Amino acid sequence: MRATVIHGAGDVRVETVPDPVIREPTDAVVRVLRACICGTDLWPYRSMPASEPASRIGHEFIGVVEETGSDVSGLRRGDLVVAPYMFEDNTCDFCVEGLTSSCRHGGMWASDGFDGAQGEAVRVPQAQGTLIKLPVGPDSALLPSLLTLSDVFPTGHHAAVTAGVGPRTQVTVIGDGAVGVLAVLAARRLGAERIILMGRHPERTSLGRAFGATDVVADRGQQGVEVVRELTGGDGTHAVLECVGLRPAIEMAFGVVRDGGVVSRVGGPQYDEVPVDFRMWTRNITLTGGFTPARAYIDELLPDVLDGKVEPGRVFDRTVDLSDVSDGYRAMADREALKVLVVP
Ligand SMILES: [Zn+2]
Predict the structure, then answer these.
(1) Structural domain boundaries of the chain?
(2) What is the assigned CATH class of domain 153-289?
(3) Over the stretch 226-262, which tens digit does the pLDDT of each residue have?
């Protein structure tokens, strides 16, 4: 089969790789219908040294079950399924507690010899726990929105949930990437009364407005902090969702959070230190967020996607064939595209 392989920064190729086969009785083989490119895929695309061994890539997919191992029940050949960005048994103590990202039998796609999602098919370990059956056909118009359940929509949701967003909450979302605008959608879905989106790309912030942002602040740094504080009577907001992952973003987050408020960070922070100083202690600021337990959230988010109450798939603004996947990477890296759908 053909699959995407990354050889180094800027060097993504489609190559012939071994067909996936059932190796463990808990496996399934899934033919990929739709995959996509994640902001985190851009990290190696921007910085992977050519000296590192080439690696499969991609961790978001929807597909059709082709084959199941003898221990897999509840799934059959022909079922349409979505997979979260990592596989998990969904039965261990962490999974039962809702922390599927810490699953004792979990692992990541495209690492340790496991298939990546940007290819024609995937061997799925722990298939019964990992795969969620979707009650739609392979040509459903809902596929893009259902695909966001793999990672990006649950990640926006995780930011909002860990920050305690609900009715009467005022929220600031930092970042107008795919995670940021879906954090807006998630905060709106949870009932937030006001959502200030900090971003400076007009086509992305207008999607953020369509998803429920009530205010858009294009300023950054101290100026951005001051504008948000002016909008909120000087206080800042109860919840701040940091969806960028860079040091200036977390600094802004602590600048715009209200006393007693919560800062949540998702999407893989690229900084080692956070500005939680004595002043933040006196202000009773909480820092939370983390690695998204996507599997645990899909059951909650799926019905609203199926009903059309939310349309997270609107983040996809470009579609490429698998053979053109390198162009998809380039378009996302150059910020020509917000999020790219890949059709094998
Ligand atoms: Zn588990």
Answers:
(1) 2-151+293-343, 153-289
(2) alpha beta
(3) 999 999 999 999 999 999 999 999 999 999 999 999 9
- Please give the distance, rounded to the nearest whole angstrom, from the Cα atom of residue 173 to the centre of ligand 1: 30
Helix intervals (H) in the chain:
42-47, 93-96, 127-130, 143-147, 152-162, 178-189, 202-211, 221-231, 247-256, 278-282, 294-306, 325-333
Distance of CA 183 from the midpoint of ligand 1 (Å) = 25
3-state class (DSSP) for residue 231: helix
C-alpha of 192 from chain center: 20
10/185 Cα distance (integer angstroms): 32
Q: What is the mean pLDDT of the chain?
A: 97
- Model confidence at 171, in pLDDT bands (50, 70, 90)? very high
Encode 245-257: b = buried (16+ Cβ within 10 Å), e = exposed: beeebbbbbbbbb
The pLDDT score that the predictor gives to residue 268 is 86
Instruction: Please write the tens of the pLDDT for every residue from 52-84.
Output: 999 999 999 999 999 999 999 999 999 999 999
Q: Tell me how far the alpha carbon of residue 5 lies from the centroid of ligand 1, in angstroms.
A: 28
Ligand 1 centroid – CA 216 distance (Å): 39
Helices 152-162 and 178-189, packing angle to 10 deg: 50
Q: What is the CATH number of domain 2-151+293-343?
A: 3.90.180.10
Element (DSSP H or E) covering residue 81:
strand 80-83
- The CA 128 to ligand 1 mean position distance, Å, reads 11
pLDDT in the model for residue 100: 98
Task: Write out the two tokens for 99.
Answer: 């922390």
Query: Over the stretch 259-293, which tens digit does the pLDDT of each residue have?
Result: 999 999 997 899 999 988 999 999 999 999 999 99
